[in-house]
TrEMBL record:
<protein>
    <submittedName>
        <fullName>FAD-binding molybdopterin dehydrogenase</fullName>
    </submittedName>
</protein>
<dbReference type="Pfam" id="PF03450">
    <property type="entry name" value="CO_deh_flav_C"/>
</dbReference>
<keyword id="KW-0285">Flavoprotein</keyword>
<keyword id="KW-0274">FAD</keyword>
<dbReference type="InterPro" id="IPR002346">
    <property type="entry name" value="Mopterin_DH_FAD-bd"/>
</dbReference>
<dbReference type="InterPro" id="IPR016169">
    <property type="entry name" value="FAD-bd_PCMH_sub2"/>
</dbReference>
<dbReference type="GO" id="GO:0071949">
    <property type="term" value="F:FAD binding"/>
</dbReference>
<feature type="domain" description="FAD-binding PCMH-type">
    <location>
        <begin position="1"/>
        <end position="219"/>
    </location>
</feature>
<dbReference type="GO" id="GO:0016491">
    <property type="term" value="F:oxidoreductase activity"/>
</dbReference>
<dbReference type="InterPro" id="IPR016166">
    <property type="entry name" value="FAD-bd_PCMH"/>
</dbReference>
<dbReference type="InterPro" id="IPR051312">
    <property type="entry name" value="Diverse_Substr_Oxidored"/>
</dbReference>
<dbReference type="InterPro" id="IPR005107">
    <property type="entry name" value="CO_DH_flav_C"/>
</dbReference>
<dbReference type="Pfam" id="PF00941">
    <property type="entry name" value="FAD_binding_5"/>
</dbReference>
<dbReference type="InterPro" id="IPR036318">
    <property type="entry name" value="FAD-bd_PCMH-like_sf"/>
</dbReference>
<dbReference type="InterPro" id="IPR036683">
    <property type="entry name" value="CO_DH_flav_C_dom_sf"/>
</dbReference>
<dbReference type="InterPro" id="IPR016167">
    <property type="entry name" value="FAD-bd_PCMH_sub1"/>
</dbReference>
Length: 325
């Protein structure tokens, strides 16, 4: 480990000022501390934001509002989450071990770094860790890497499970920086790698996530999260799907579908959603729509299986959602 300075922020303003001056936020630290141990990340200054009043979980009408510092375990077991958006609890439980859920914050979960193995190998080329060095995964061991949203500079998947559910549900987030507050869709937090894969999100220096708002509506009643992985215990997704249906008299009025494990960011499948509109809520409709999910995929040498697994996962998730009373 290397030397660094740790300070505690007593207010959001103090935290933002420290971060704008180059400090890094730390809350649960479940990703950052690991990366510091491996010397993948070497921040000189950390600001502890755990004392900030950003851990509230509440209903606002039919909307669900989740503070950025709320722990994953608290969100997963909160009665309002279970009542309004149980898919969020489902994705959180699937997303981490109980120990990690007890520590990790919701904001930190969204901002966690990629899990491409080469990112943590200091002797391997990785444009995320060392811009301009290359991407060892493209011609290396890439069975777990992305097939959507990739570039010639990066093929790493985004690791968050709950981010997939939040993107599917059209959640928004509120952030504050030195220039004031702004709100935007959670989907717009994530950047495609392009030729700058080290730039992973759209926050400006010092911006602090305050809360996440999940809009209410009919989707909450028929929504499921399905995660396919190498083992039943805690593991990152090979393919995952968050789906939500609005069904009336057997017909799909509208739907929301996002997938994980296959994209360089949580991947919303609007073409699949459009294809389902007005169709019967049955396997035939689900299969026809799911075939559109593979448009634009770029499989690598070891992950062609994801192009087959992706539509199958979507179909099963839609069947699960359709079975919800």
């Amino acid at each position: 480990m290397f030397p660094f300075v740790l300070e505690k922020a007593g207010s959001a303003e103090a935290a933002i000022a420290a971060a704008a001056a180059g400090a890094r936020y730390i809350a649960g630290g479940t990703t950052l501390v690991d990366l510091m141990r491996d010397e993948v990340e070497r921040p000189e200054r950390l600001v502890d934001i755990n004392a900030l009043p950003l851990s509230d979980i509440r209903a606002d009408g039919e909307d669900l509002v989740i503070g950025a510092l709320a722990r994953m375990s608290d969100v997963a077991t909160h009665p309002e989450v279970g009542r309004l958006q149980p898919i969020i609890a489902e994705s959180l439980i699937e997303g981490a071990s109980p120990q990690l859920r007890n520590m990790a914050s919701m904001g930190g979960n969204l901002l966690q770094r990629c899990r491409c193995p080469y990112f943590r190998m200091l002797d391997a080329a990785c444009n995320k860790r060392d811009p301009g060095s290359g991407c060892a995964a493209i011609d290396g061991l890439n069975a777990g890497n992305a097939i959507l949203g990739t570039s010639d500079h990066c093929v790493a998947t985004h690791p968050s499970d709950v981010a997939v559910a939040l993107v599917a549900l059209g959640a928004t987030m509120r952030v504050r920086g030195s220039d004031g507050e702004r709100s935007f869709a959670v989907e717009d937090l994530f950047r495609l790698p392009g030729d700058t894969p080290h730039l992973e999100h759209t926050l400006t220096p010092g911006e602090l996530i305050l809360d996440i708002r999940v809009p209410g509506g009919p989707y909450g009643r028929r929504a499921r999260y399905l995660k396919v992985r190498d083992r039943a215990s805690y593991e990152f997704a090979l393919v995952s799907a968050a789906v939500a249906l609005d069904v009336e008299e057997g017909l799909i009025r509208s739907s929301r579908i996002a997938v994980g494990g296959v994209g360089t960011k949580p991947w919303r499948l609007r073409a699949c959603e459009t294809a389902l509109a007005g169709k019967p809520a049955d396997r035939s409709s689900f299969e026809a729509a799911a075939r559109l999910a593979t448009e634009g995929v770029r499989p690598l040498s070891h992950n062609h299986y994801k192009a087959e697994l992706l539509p199958r996962t979507i179909v099963r998730a839609l069947e699960m959602a359709g079975d919800v009373a």
